[in-house]
């Protein structure tokens, strides 16, 4: 699959966890696809129809046993989704605020490894002028191919702020 699909999966998973603000855990503190409080793990945005029998299955096994309950892209990119899950699961013991910070750090590493962009402004802070055209291309692809408007808008807003700051630096 393409980087565009991986970017779409990362965006959905990341925004889901950030909006949720905590790990998805059962009463024993074990990560679950869907917790009793309605929270979901990093792979839950890719599950179209939840079934309790999914719990305790690896992502690859889940997609094999429940092929009609998972979006196609997440089945094809099962190993990538597994990495997204690990970012969630490996940080689960932390308090909610610490969990989010540790989760963000794990996702930044995945994004670097796969040459993707984490949604939001902070990962664009160190962009050089040479990389801006590449980022704009990714944002346009998100808009046109993936219909991922929220992530593309976030990227474009950061670039606009950087442009305004750069213009301000050159005014006397």
Architecture blueprint of SSEs:
Layout: H1 3-20, H2 59-65, H3 72-76, H4 78-89, H5 96-114, H6 129-146, H7 149-170
Low-confidence stretches: 121-130
Tally the helices: what do you get? Answer: 7
Q: What share of the residues does DSSP label as strand, in percent?
A: under 5%
Q: End-to-end distance, in Å?
A: 49 Å
Which sequence of SSEs, written as H and E, runs from N to C? HHHHHHH
Helix content: 55-70%
Major β-sheet annotation? none
Average residue pLDDT: 81
Number of strands: 0
Oligomeric organization of the protein chains = single chain
Short description:
It contains 7 helices and no strands. It is mainly alpha-helical and 172 residues long. Residues 121-130 have low confidence and may be disordered.
Structure commentary:
It is a single chain. The chain has 7 helices and no strands. It has 172 residues and is mostly helical. The protein folds into 2 domains: 1-118, no CATH class; 120-172, no CATH class. Helix 1 runs antiparallel to helix 5, helix 1 (3-20) crosses helix 6 (129-146) and helix 4 (78-89) runs antiparallel to helix 5 (96-114). The radius of gyration is 17 Å and the shape is globular.
């Amino acid at each position: 699959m393409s980087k565009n699909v991986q970017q779409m999966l990362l965006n959905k998973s990341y925004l889901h966890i950030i909006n949720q603000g905590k790990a998805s855990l059962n009463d024993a503190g074990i990560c679950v696809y869907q917790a009793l409080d309605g929270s979901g793990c990093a792979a839950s945005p890719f599950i179209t129809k939840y079934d309790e029998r999914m719990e305790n299955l690896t992502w690859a096994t889940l997609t094999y046993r429940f092929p009609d309950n998972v979006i196609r892209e997440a089945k094809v990119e099962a190993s990538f989704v597994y990495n997204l899950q690990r970012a969630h699961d490996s940080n689960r013991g932390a308090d909610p605020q610490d969990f989010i910070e540790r989760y963000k750090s794990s996702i930044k590493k995945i994004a670097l490894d796969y040459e993707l962009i984490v949604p939001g402004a902070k990962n664009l802070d160190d962009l050089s002028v040479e990389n801006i055209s590449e980022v704009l291309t990714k944002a346009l692809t998100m808009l046109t191919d993936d219909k991922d408007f929220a992530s593309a808008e976030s990227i474009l807003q950061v670039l606009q702020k950087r442009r305004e700051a750069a213009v301000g630096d050159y005014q006397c």
